[in-house]
């Protein structure tokens, strides 16, 4: 017995000392050298099929990429296409396991290797993997082939059931293989891949527990599902190496040794306390590499490197904590396709970082990917840039039953397994609209099974009263809670092109002009709509609308009472080739255009969102430009988080702006004079805290070209891109904000012009004639597989031409395989620094609690008006003499603000009187709103407050233009759905009421 123990210890020591062994696993970039043919060619599955005339492509590449933004979403081509690839395995691969990983195909795909059928994958959203080992030819050429059908109405073959998320409004149909493909070569004793589809394996799971943020300590856990495909049992040791972003090993620890039988699958675990940690945070994409390795027979035989980060979360009391600091959600609901003109979703990893990083630059902290699980490249990108994510399963609208619900739960399961090591995911979203309590419990069980330690909340849109949901929130309205956090899933749905400044300057676009109809997503038909203000803004009005809409959430932020809003995400970040309602055939609600050129709302959000909750860095921005004709008199709008804003024109003060919605300052009737327009912000003490200016530009003189590219240079892999920026400048190098010149581009060298977008025929997609808009535009240029220097020349009538040269560097591809993994070379961005250890907000208001209520009618339901449930209400019986309710407060207080959510908030104005005891403290008509109204009342010491209706309410939708896919129903208690809601009577209906004392500090 002693001898056996000694031999075991010697074996363990030899394994532990073998840390320097070379990796036993290889991951290859499998994107190169694919062949594409559109149309159904059944014989293409055969090895000897002649494919020499097929189109050569580097993945990721949708077969219909040329249509992105040229056609509307519902017109994107759906058909059958084939992809094929010839490849050889490297020397030394014999007797190894070979797996292929597709990050996703669209929609249903049949997979073949060397003429053998591998299997089927149909959901069109999630990754899938196959074991190629039984069919692979070592030392010979192999042929893989895919038949893909991206039919909009594709149905699951086994059940004849359509996938709910294959939707012509939301899920742009970029068909084929629009995502990356990887090849894995491993030992026969290996850690599995996190690919549940087809492989039924769960891979590696890394997580942290007992996180102590201030002490910078945590217990790091690693778990690996492993499989032994040798014909004999293997004694396996499990080792974990934690490496920081600088490549330094900071911890090595071991799990227990395990005897694994032939064909057996087991899970190995290891854990250790680690100090000196940097915790992942908003704008702080600090990532570690965790290497988990298997050791047997005295050597390392498998190693997996997982890039991940660690952070601490908590959800409750209506709030969200990240690393022990409360954070209010501020960000965007972005289409999962996240697409670009002329290429769709298939962009290089660095361009994903550029786009997602712009959200963080805009001071957004959250992106809610809409309807469908995002692809892995965007998820990893958000890890790097420090952007929190809400990860969907998949749906269109509403709950489902039967097989469609089964499809959704399977997608959520697979997505959790695939993405559970990505620290930026804080929310799992089970549906784009409310699901049943039973379905919520089912989804929660999936999360608890596959990601029990990830620190992620699971919920769904709406979910206002189901406590099993760990977060909720509606699409359009303002929600508050003192239980699970509520944040708006899609707010501010208005649209406007970047091209239009205002009605005072070229091209003179008055708010709403040019659009007398809109496309309804509910009917898929064009409908008349004379009032088009919400769907055809200019930049001034679009920016102002965004300011107003954010104010609704800002004033309900943490620190304003017991019931708070956890913020919201605006739809959308960048203009998208999905559901549209305006003149153009794409959605223009973005704060940037499709080329990620900012519109003015981008800068407005940058001002309003600069803080975890309260504003931490005062900012200021003048909306618009300063290039008008002499004699123009117009309002000037400034967005600022300062307490007071002063405007100067050529050094002369024009006074202080009128403040509205906290952030908007208006200066009426400003007469244009060329020169410098300057805005200065002051804090509460009158000290300058921020400053900005606009300068009048001269006449257009010249073209300027510049390049935006990967920090690691442009790669000649046939998939990498550069972003070419073109500007029209005056003689002093200032951009001319009114320039709309048509620029002609010539391209020489190994490159493919993919172009940009502008208003015009086919949206100028792929055209080498592209106008600037507001003096600027951009175009994408894709590399070929041949490296070299590219020269671009830009010309326009009446302007000095420009030229720029840039070079691509070669990428080694051998037999269809490359070791170049584009995302691996991109570093996490640390722009905002580590999570501050200070509080993120100050209490500005406190609630005075309610003990009880007595009502003129339906007294038994009076509690519904203060039960913290926005799906319940108190109402009287419609008679004038019963339209009152009296509240007994928990203490005598000088209430100075009454916050109300009144049924029919967007449709109905209530004439109210409010009394403190017998003293009238407020009288008037409530505003129509998207949630809560705040009434400033006379502060009188009292413990009793009465709300009384003083006349019939007034009807009329104040927000009719926000009607969306779910039209006309948007909420259970909006009068669209409320019983007898269309009848105007002496009706008082209260969803929630709060009595507040403001704190003057």
From TrEMBL:
Pfam entry (one): Glyco_hydro_2_N
All residue ranges annotated as the Glycoside hydrolase family domain in the record: 706-804
DUF4982 domain residues: 631-689
Ranges for domain Glycoside hydrolase family 2 catalytic: 317-452
Keyword tags: Glycosidase, Hydrolase, Signal
Residue ranges of every copy of the Glycoside hydrolase family 2 immunoglobulin-like beta-sandwich domain listed in the record: 209-311
One term of GO molecular function: hydrolase activity, hydrolyzing O-glycosyl compounds
Domain Glycosyl hydrolases family 2 sugar binding intervals: 79-153
Biological-process GO terms, alphabetical: carbohydrate metabolic process
InterPro entries per record: Beta-gal/glucu_dom_sf, DUF4982, Galactose-bd-like_sf, GH, GH2_Domain-Containing, Glyco_hydro2_dom5, Glyco_hydro_2_cat, Glyco_hydro_2_N
Signal peptide: 1-21
PANTHER family: BETA-GALACTOSIDASE, BETA-MANNOSIDASE
Similarity comment: family membership: Belongs to the glycosyl hydrolase 2 family.
Name assigned to this protein: DUF4982 domain-containing protein
Record organism: Bacteroides intestinalis
Lineage of source species: Bacteria, Pseudomonadati, Bacteroidota, Bacteroidia, Bacteroidales
